Fold these 4 entries.
Entry 1:
Amino acid sequence: MKRRRWGMAWLALLPMALTVLLAYLGTTLWTLRVSLSSSRTFPRDDFVGLAQYQRLFENERWLQSLGNLAVYGLLFMLACMVIGFALAVFIDQKVRGEGLLRTAFLYPYAMSFVATGLVWQWVLNPGAGLQPALQQLGWSDFTFDWIIDQDKVIYTVVIASVWQAAGLVMAMLLAGLRGIDEDIWKAARMDGIPAWRVYLSIVLPMLAPTLATVFVLLSTAVVKVFDAVVAMTQGGPGTASDVPAKFIMDHLFGRANIALASAGAIVLLLTVVVLVAPLLYARSRARAREGA
């Protein structure tokens, strides 16, 4: 009977195991193989070594997209962490209308960025959005044309992305805050410790596992950012807001260069591994020490 149960359990896991092996691992290996070939429109069964990777890092557009991704990732993650934590602390004070506020802050994350990106594109449009609206209200010198400024357009993508993702960070950190023992706060009040000190020295270290999870989610979102850029700027003006994922898609479908696109995809995969693997390893070691 026990063997039968084990057999049924493994049978239930079989579809997911096949998905991981074929859809994930298999396609990753196929992408790696293509990146080592001279494939253009269709795959070729040849081998050119790391030539595609050399071409990739000699491509100015790719280097620009990496720079944009670095700026976007740093500002996006920092802003989401700070705003999400501030919103979580605010709601944790048992404010009135807590349920409504949680829904309002989390709602943007449930929306498609294709739709919300178009809305933000309109809001930030200097000819039809926020700028002319405020000028008509009397602020005639007000200008906000970042979305058409090559030096500032990437910041508009950050603003829209933070608006969408900060609510998720808020929800996760709020759950962590609600799990902290109330006796800690009572003891801190009795000792006269300021609230900011309690958050900095006690609460944040206790939220370390939750913060690690948030970091993983945000970092993977940064690496694969695509829809926000396409919906708002199409990578423009010019290539000023280009990101690696858009570079890959353009070369895969628009320029018929699947080898170069595959090389870019492998680089992005390695970036995710470099960011996430040490964190996952540290968490596994911590769990092992706790279980010992």
Note: Residues 2-35 form the longest helix (34 residues).
Entry 2:
Amino acid sequence: MRTINLLHRWAGGLIGLLLAVIGASGTLLMHQDAWLRAIVPHAADTFVQQDSARLAPIVTRLFADPVNRPSGILFAREGFGLDRLSYTNRDAGAYVGQAGNVVTRWSSKWERPEVWLFDLHHHLLAGPAGDIVAGIAGLAGIGFVVTGGLLWWRTRRTFAFRLWPRRLSRAAILRHHRDLGIVAAPLLLLSFVTGAMMNLPPVERLLLRPFSAPAEIAPVQARPKGMSGSLVTPVDWRGILDTAHARFPDAELRWIGLPAEPGGPIKVRMRQPSEWTPNGLTILWFDPASSRLAGVQDALTLPKGARIAALEYPVHAGKVGGLAWRFVMTLSGLALTILGTMAVYAFWLGRGSPNFSRR
């Protein structure tokens, strides 16, 4: 137990602040729509699901812009009344009203707080390398929950729940850390496991293997091959939208993207009523040269492992279950922020004192 105690303390003292940053940024992102509705014009507009006849001219006009042609359009949804444009420069973007009028543009992620916060939480502002580091931090978090539970068991009779330490002394902080940690442990474990699965594909494949082998999932999620050529303009957006809605009449159109590389397909994402993923995993691919349907991924017929994987993000980010679940996951994020910050503070407090370990 002494070894577990040393590992828990040293690891917490070294990466606790990183976990606190991840917790704080994730908590803010869970309430992103609320503060965007307060500060961005038309973000609070009522969402209207438009049919193909009304939407096709808007999509055509946006993609035909010779100066600011987007690479993709993320459509408005219930609770957020703006479409979002993405560009090949991933730091750039724009919000447009549901009629296609530009509300605001940005050329750098630093111009929009929600954009750099997302990058901070998911990628630690470091791209793919940040994904790996954040995923490893999630695995470390799982270790903290397990070892913390073992260490708390010895002192369970002194349990006293507090949101904040009684005093900012090392002893009071450590006691608060143990007791708050054990209360938040189930939610923290859920956050760490889902976060690690999203950031580290090998971890995801390992945990999903009992439900579906990777060889079973990969083929059904692969985009179709054999496209007839590069993008030919003008694209028949009305035909594409009509085909998508005819194939999934009850689904909500969520995203349209131009080919990511020459010869790639046009991609349409839809969300069926029973899907938890906010932007849906029902995907239709269209040939860029002919605008014909080239392939379909029905989210409701995916292998069980893929359907479980689809739950990771909505559960982790509080995108399902309404206000109640968002409140629960907010508590998880706040607990992680407090625990991480206080772990670092307590570990380094009085580090130069010879009696540090007994204080």
Note: Residues 214-302 form one domain.
Entry 3:
Amino acid sequence: MPAIAEGDLFPDFDLPTDGGGRVSRAMLGGKPFVLYVYPKADTSGCTAEANDFTRLAPDFAALGIPVIGLSPDPVKALDRFKAKHGLGVTLVSDEERSLLETLGLWVEKSMYGRKYMGAERTTFLVGADGRVARLWPKVSVPGHAEEVLTAARALPRQD
């Protein structure tokens, strides 16, 4: 389970993005945002999730809600991933795992009997007040982006 819960203040962060930019909670201050954590760029589940959020990006933008994908991949891998699939969301690199560890999402995993450390697929909808409005741990990708959009539409408007 994530180290923070619904209602908690989302932790501060300042991380590099695809394309050579940066994003921080301060830069997003006063605006709601979606932050989805995915394990590895250009894998099947992560690509499907990124494509789903990209397809719905105009709907999130109409609500004034940026969508940010976070992984432990280096920025160069994110740039290739974004270009290869024409992704329309901001991708953030947490190569040092500072935010992933703060969120409790750098966890031991197991595949085919082999144990390794990796990011746990989780999504946060953060309200304009900086608090976690909704949390989806251990996400199943099909239909997930639509579910997040429905929750985002229910957030109080900050006009």
Note: The mean pLDDT is 93.
Entry 4:
Amino acid sequence: MTTTIVRIASLVLGGCIAASMLSTPVFAVGGGGGGGSNTPTCKKGQIYDKRSKQCVKQQSANVTDENRTDYAYSLAKAGRYEEALAILDTVKDQNNAEVLNYRGYATRKLGRTDEGISYYLQSVKLDPQYAKVREYLGEAYVVKGRIDLAKEQLNMIKAICGTGCEEYQDLNAVILDPSKI
């Protein structure tokens, strides 16, 4: 405990804490999807291995595509979009609805909205009942000023999981107030 406090105090002296410099995993903010808030984010160049429950070197990691996909989403939700894309590049099965959705999410958050939409549309083709991709596609349409298309996605989500699911509520909130993106 004392070592951790000393380590944090030394980082604070610089005026900010650089989470990626901490030796212990930093938990990502946000949830939903495969990654969720329970997947730690590791230092750059590492990946969280669910089996060993620790951060390991990315190059030597023998982790599943699902593990890599979940970890990439965790990085994206933590605002580490370029790193998320780099991890997604290591997934063997690139033609996967979640991989394409998370690639779209990270790309959109980097300001490349049209490119993000193209990934979302590929994901929808693979799994039309995947509510999370429809939420993010709707958000991208809001960014583009296409509220009509966002509302179409909202109606699709309603058909998939109703108005009580997180994806419906999140997209509806963004449609009502685009500043929530």
Note: The chain has two domains: 19-93, 97-181.
